[in-house]
Amino acid sequence: MGSKPSVPKIGFMKERELPGKFIVVEGADGAGTTTMSKKLAEEVDAYWTREPAENSIGQKVDEMISGDKHSAEAISLAFAADRMIHLEEEVIPRLEKGKTVVSDRYYHSSLVYQPAMGVDFEWKKQLNREAIKPDLTVLIDVEAETGMARVEERGKDGNIFEEMDFQQEVVMRYRQLPEKLEEQIVKVDGSKGIQEVAQRVKNAVRGHIDG
User: Does 69 fall in a domain?
Assistant: First the structure.
C-alpha cells in the first residue's frame, strides 16, 4: 500500500504556524461581507476567496441551503467538508508562500447559523477542530432589520436563512462569539455607508497586515 499524502495538522483554536496572513470577514445576511471582503483584498493586495467555496462540495452546500430537504446536521457536515477542501486547495498553499488571504465567511458562520438551526454548538465546534485559526476576524455588525432590508433591496438569494426571526437569532449569536472563542475578533459597525464601513474594516486589519 502506498503512503498517504501529507495533510496539514493544525488544530482548531490553536495558533497556526504559517507565514502568510489569514483574514476573515463575517456577519449576518445583509451585513456586506462579500463587498467588504473584496474591497479589503484589493486594498491589501490579497487573494480573495469565500465559503461555500467554488468546488463540487461547495456547490452541493449551496443546493442544500436552498431548500428544506436536509437536516441541520447534514448541512453542518457538508459545510465542514467544504471548509477542509477549501483550506487544503486554496487557503493553506497561499499562506505557506507568505501570501495574505481574505475570506468572505469561514467557520464562524457555521458556529452561528447551524446552532441557530438547533445544532449543538460544541458538536459543531468539534467538526471544525482541524480548521486553522485566522489571524483576525472582522465581524461586520448590523441589526437584523437593517440586514434584511438590504437583502430585500438587492433581491433574495433564495436560501433558508433569509427570515427575520432567524436573522435576529444570527445577529445575537455573532455578538456572543468573541466571548466563546479565544481568538482575535474585531467588531465593526456595518450600518454606515459602504465607503465608511470599508475604511473601518481596513483600519481594523492594518496592524495585523503590517505587523
Answer: no
Grid cell in block for residue 50: 469565500
Instruction: For residue 133, tell me if it sits in a domain.
Output: yes
Is residue 103 domain-resident?
A: yes
128-159, pLDDT tens digit by residue? 999 999 999 999 999 999 999 999 998 888 88
- Establish if 151 belongs to a structural domain: yes
CA 202 to chain centre: 17
Q: Which residue has the cell 456547490?
A: 59
| Distances in whole angstroms, Cα of residue 207 to Cα of each of 91, 197, 210 | 21, 17, 5
Domain count, the chain: 1
206: domain range?
Answer: 23-50+99-210
How many Cβ atoms are within 10 Å of 2's Cβ, its own excluded?
4
| CB-based contacts of 81, cutoff 8 Å, min separation 6 | 57
pLDDT digits (tens, 9 = 90+) for 32-55: 999 999 999 999 999 999 999 988
Is there a contact between 18 and 132 (Cβ–Cβ < 8 Å)? yes
For residue 115, the domain's CATH number is 3.40.50.300
Residue 12 has pLDDT above 80, yes or no: no
